Structures are given as C-alpha cells and as structure tokens.
Amino acid sequence: MDRRTRTLATAGACFAIAIMPLGSPPAAAVTDAATDAAAPAVSTLPPVSPTPQSLTPAGRDAVVTGRVIVVAGEGTDAGARARLVRELTAHGADRVDIVSPGEQPRAAAGLLTVRLGPATRADIAAALGDTQVPDRAEGYALRVTAGRQGAQIALAGKDPAGQFYAVQTLRQLFARQGDDGWKVAGVQISDFPSMPLRGTIEGFYGQPWTHAERLDQMDFYGDVKANTYIYAPKDDPYHRGKWREPYPADKLAELGELVRRATANHVRFTFAVSPGESICYSDPADRKALKAKLQALYDLGTRAFSIPLDDISYTRWNCESDRSAFGEPGRGAAARAQVDLLNDVQRTFIATHEGAQPLQMVPTEYGDLTDTAYKQTLRGTLDPAVEVMWTGTDVVPPKISNEEADKASALFGRKVFVWDNYPVNDFGNTSGRLLLAPYDKREAGLSAHLSGIVANPMNQPYASKVAVFGTADFTWNDRAYDARTSWPRAMAYLAGGDREATDALLVFGDLEHLAPTFGATPWQPQAPELARRVAEFWTSWDDGNRTGAVRALRAYATAVERAPATIRGGAVETGFTVDADPWLDATELWGRAMVTMLDALAARQGGDKETADRLLAESNDLQQRARAVRVDPPRNSWGKAQPRVGDGVLDSFLVQADVRLRLWDAAGGGENLALKGTASASSVEQNLDRLAARHVNDGLMGTRWASGYSDDAWVQVRLAAPAKVAAVTLAWEGACATEYTVQTSRDGVNWRDVSAQRPDGCGTDVVRLTADEAVQYVRMQGVERRTTWGYSIYEMGVYGAPAS
C-alpha cells in the first residue's frame, strides 16, 4: 500500500506516453474544460478516475511544504482524515499538524493549509469560494489555490463519504516538483456519483476469495469510490447449502474484520444468504433461522442484506406445507412464496433494525425481458422498498441499453439493480481465460434508469481490478465514461503509475481481451490491437514492403515477449502477478515464438533458407511449449486448462507465416482459402440459421457452426479452386471434440484421412498437412464429442496455395 501511495501520483504524467504503443487517444481528463490559456502557471490538468462531473483550473499549483497544517473539526470523517495525512506524508510533508478550525498557528503563514470537513463549515465554505458543493449524497467539492499568503486546499463533503472521496481525488492531483518536491494541481472540482449503488458482488462459482484478498478489495473499492460489496460466494457452504447453520467463530471473526475494513473505506458490506435450494417458505423455523443468520451479521456492523434466489428450481417445493400454503408448484406459486418471505424479512427485520438499508433480492428469473406469472406476481406484491437485481438480457449480456433497463424496471415494478456478470470467468466459455478487457457496451445515461450496478468479478481478485476499475468509473459518471481512456488508467493503477509496467500490462491485456458470453457472439473481441498490427503486416508484406513489415511487427512481438518479465519486475501489484502467473508464462513463449517466426521470414526474404528453416523449427517448438502450459492448480471450476493467449489472432498469424515459409515459391502461398470457399455440414443444431455451416468460414470469430448431437457429425469447405493445403485451423467453441480426423478430397466423394487428432482441450487447433497433392474439399470429421452437445466451431481455416 505504501508503494502505491508514493507512486500513483505520477500516473497522470506518464499516462499519455504509456498508452501510445496501443494507438489509443490521449486521456480526456476533464468534462468541463481541457485547458485554461488565461492561467499559464497552471500545469496540465491531471487525469482523475472516476471522471469527475466537473473539473476546471482554479489558479496556480500548490507546492507541498515540509510542514503542512490540516484543519479538521468534529465533523471531519476519521477515514478521510487518516488517508489525507498518509497522502501528505507520502508526498513531501515531513510534519503534518492537525488543528481545529480557528486555531491555526501564527507560524502557518507560507505553509500549505488543507481544510477537510463538511461543506457547512464556515472556513471551508470561504476557502471554496464559488466552487459549489453538490447537494447530492456522497458529493464533494475540492479547490486548490496558491497565492502570496501561501497555498491552501479545501476538501468539503456533503456527507462523510463525500469527504473521503474528496481525499481520494486529491491523491490523484499530486505531481513532481523538481527533483525531490511535490505539488498539487491548481484545480476546482464539483463532483458526485451518478448511481447510488456501485461496486461488486462476489457471486461466482468455484474457489472463493481468501480473507486477505477480500480485505485488499475493500481498500481498492475505497480508492475507486465504489460503495458496495455483496458477499455471496456460491461455494461458501454457510451462504448457500448450510444457510441455516451459524458461521463458526473463526469465520465470524473474519467477517467482522471485513465489515470494519469495508466501513473504513465507505463501502457498504452487504451480506447475502441464499436459502432457495432447501428452504420451506411456510415454515416458521426456517424463517427464524434465516433472520438469526442476518442478526449475527447485523451484530458485526452489517447494515445491508440480500436474499438471492437465483439458480434454484422454482417448479418444485422443498416441503409439502408450501403446496398447501402457495398452491401447486409453478412460476406464480413460486413468486408468491418468495414474496411472502421477502416482505416478512423487509418488514419485520430490516424495518425494525436501526440503520438497515432496504433489502436486496435476486429473482429466479433474472436474465431476460419476458413477462411471466412470476414477474407479474413480484411487481404486484413485493414490498416497494425491496431492491430487485437483474443481469441484463442474458446471463452475460453483450450490452445493456437504456431501453432494456426501462423494460426491466417495468417488469419488476421498480428501478432494477444490475448484477453485471463481467468479468466473471466461472463458466465453460471462459475456460483458460483471464478477462482483462475494459468495462464497455453499457449505454451512457443508464444512471437515470438503474439504481446501480455491481460487477461479478473473476475467481482471480487482483486481475478482476481491471474491469472493476472501469465499472466504478462508469457508475460514477456514465455520461462521461470512455473505455478507451479508463482502461489504460486501470492498468496504471495496477502498475502503481510506473510507465513501463503500464505499457506491459496494456500489451498483456490486449492478449486477454476476449469477453465470452453464453451466446454465440463474444462480448468483446480477442487481441484487437495485435489483430490490427497483423493485418497491417500482411498488407505491407503483400505490397512488397517486406522489410518494413517485419521491422514494425517485430517491435510489437518483442513487447509481447518482454511484457511478462516487466509485469513481474516489482511495480505491478504482486497479487496480479500471482493471479496471472500461468498466462504470463504462456505469453512469454508465444511472444518468443512470434519474434522467432518473424526472424525466419526475414531470413527467407534475404535468401537464407537454411536459417529460415532452423528458425521455423524453433518457433514451432516454442508454440508447442506454450500450448503445454497449464493453469495448475486452478482456482476456477473449469479445472486445469491451457491459458488462452491471443488465441485466434497470435496463433493464426503463426500458422499463416508458417505456411508462407513452407510454400515460399507458390503463388498466393499462405492464404486462408476457406474464406473464398463454400461450407456445408452433416447437420446444424436445431436447424438454427445462426448456427449454420456458412458461419464456419465467414472470417468472424463472433459467429459459429454447431452440429446436431451425434459423434459422426462433420463440416467441410469446398475451396474455390483445387489447392495444395499446408495447414488447417479449427477454432473450437466450448463444445469441442475429444477425437476427430481431418479429411481431404478431390471430388467430394472419395475422401482420405490426412490427420487424426485428440486435443486435450477446447481451443484453436493447428493441423499441419504435407501439401503433397491438390484437393478441393477439406473436412472436419467428428469421431467423439467432448460434451453432450454437438460440435461447435467458430472458424475453420484452410491455408495453402492454389494448384494453378
């Protein structure tokens, strides 16, 4: 923590440089003004995250003096005051004196004076001048000025949380002054959150976070102004399966410490208990046990509670008395039972406990916009005070629009509270993946339609900070949110402001950019920056500028190879390097394979075939080593898996380069001939057009072909003309093959098995062929399915050269 305190203030200075390798635009640090030509003494306005509602110049920068006076009264938030002293001490103050209002020492002239407290305090109001304190919960105002009488900073909060957030903004305004001094940017800020509920829900399946990891998360949420953490890990037995049983004393002590750490960071610790698997709704004893569980956490200081009823059967009862009380099992009856329980908890527990926040719940129907008897009953009879959570139009929605939010609110009879299943990676489509893409595809203006958003993070807590940082940024000021600028700031946060480490994280994050959903189209594409550079490479190569093409891409490939060592070099949070360890191992190997392949291309272009062949062999060996890396031991329920690194982009480039080298003298060697071919298949899952065979060679990783549910299903591509085929690539979805063969044919009637494959997982398979004869058909012939579903392939590539 101390390391970050010292270095984060420099993040703004290096930010624009840090993101240049990815071609991103400069950070938009403010919403109201970017420069102030009338005040040349003011430095460039620093980037602040979350983006303030208003940030403008106020005058000259304030120099941090060796002794600083902090004016704090009885209304000053203790957490804000402690963080302020820590930041001042870390940024040049050798001595911080805390005095009451009106008691500044005479010797304070010329010293930096910082006033912290409620907006109603007279001295703070005077120091703010015309800087307005928003009349909104958690709002704050900040003003930094410097003059002949010395510099002063005013930090005013609408409430204690506002004071704390003012200090969190101040820590981002420090910048170096000379070799060993510090200054604070001369700005004025008027700011407040757009959404009342912002943060995370630890609601994934698989290994829950450790106590130490959760404590760290509370500090992180304070830093990014997130105010909500919902404790709901599916694999905590006392949260779900053993919900009636009290927590053991040691676990209860941990929860108490977690509640206190959350409170210190102005995070609302929300305790969730999920009884739906076994509760008898009509049983007074079960209700008593549920309230006792809530009371135990209330006694620890918890003031927010949730009863999630997701992922349960609601078409059967757990006891016969529920049949008598609520009728035959079904949607309407289930809703009646759930409402009866929830209204009881809201009215007899929440309403009778001082300071308790409105009850939250997750409906069993949480991820659609279909009106049903279940939703009709909820909106007609559920207490209006109860917050209802909704995941969007799918379990993992590729987008959330204002129109969709309004429809959901109408269905449930209140503004919904979004449980956003990103960056959670506990489902099959995420096997082997870290999800490091920025928070995106949520429409500006949602703050007018939702009560809040909480992100469901990954089993890997530190790696989750990338997306959660963006979630906090969006929920604070959704109308000013820009994923292109928030994402590099998230990486800079993890890197403690270190420029080189930030660059390395951006390169690594691009290789972990794919964001799957439960549907056919990933939420975000894989490796967009690398894909852009690879496309430019082949364009330049085919235009004849081969030396320039190799030089440009090799520089980026070298950055890929070196990124893991830089990330592990000490600047980046240690927890992140632990979370990402197998992915970093694989990235280094893939990067070396790419550099070596480019060197092979350069050698072959220079006429040195022997060196090119040797380097090609070295690259292929590195690729095999990269594919052999495993996430082990895994934190996720998907078990030991191959880390996915730039899959579909990096490996596809290596295949194409390999084929170019092998078919160097063939015209068009290395072209993906499948793109100009015609696909057909033995079957299509449920005859759905969106899963038709034509999607297997449309060049889009967001579409796919899926077969019927048989082991002997196949898909094939008829090439536009006979060709010598050197390689076939198969980018599998989660329903892949345990065993299959690649077959070729001249006429589509007589087939030859050219390769038998038994992959150890679902990913992108590269099948190299001898290219010894011209063929016109290439087929994936299934032998054995890995799942009960059919076979599903995003893309089938056929690389080679036309026979003519």
Describe this protein's structure.
The protein has 804 residues and is an alpha/beta fold. The chain has 4 domains: 2-48 and 54-191, Chitobiase/beta-hexosaminidase domain 2-like (Chitobiase, domain 2), CATH 3.30.379.10; 197-494, Alpha-Beta Barrel (TIM Barrel); 495-662, Hyaluronidase post-catalytic domain-like (Methane Monooxygenase Hydroxylase, Chain G, domain 1, Up-down Bundle); 670-804, Sandwich (Jelly Rolls). It is 34% helix and 20% strand. It has 21 helices and 27 strands. The strands form 4 sheets. Strands 19, 20, 21, 22, 23, 24, 25, 26 and 27 form a 9-stranded antiparallel beta sheet that branches. An 8-stranded parallel beta barrel has the order 11-12-13-14-15-16-17-18, surrounded by 4 helices. A 7-stranded mixed beta sheet has the order 1-10-6-7-5-3-4, sandwiched between helices. Strand 13 (268-272), helix 8 (284-298) and strand 14 (304-308) form a beta-alpha-beta unit. The chain starts with a helix and ends with a strand.
Can I get a quick summary?
It is built from 21 helices and 27 strands.
Total domain units: 4
* Quaternary form: single chain
Helix fraction bin: 25-40%
CATH architecture designation of the largest domain: Alpha-Beta Barrel
- Biggest β-sheet, characterized? 9 strands, antiparallel
The CATH topology of the largest domain comes to TIM Barrel
Q: Class by helix and strand content? A: alpha/beta
Mean pLDDT: 92
The CATH homologous superfamily name of the largest domain equals Glycosidases
Give the C-alpha Rg: 29 Å
Total number of helical segments? 21
**Apparent shape:** globular
Pfam families: F5_F8_type_C, Glyco_hydro_20b, NAGidase
Active site: 311
Keywords: Glycosidase, Hydrolase, Signal
Domain GH84: 196-479
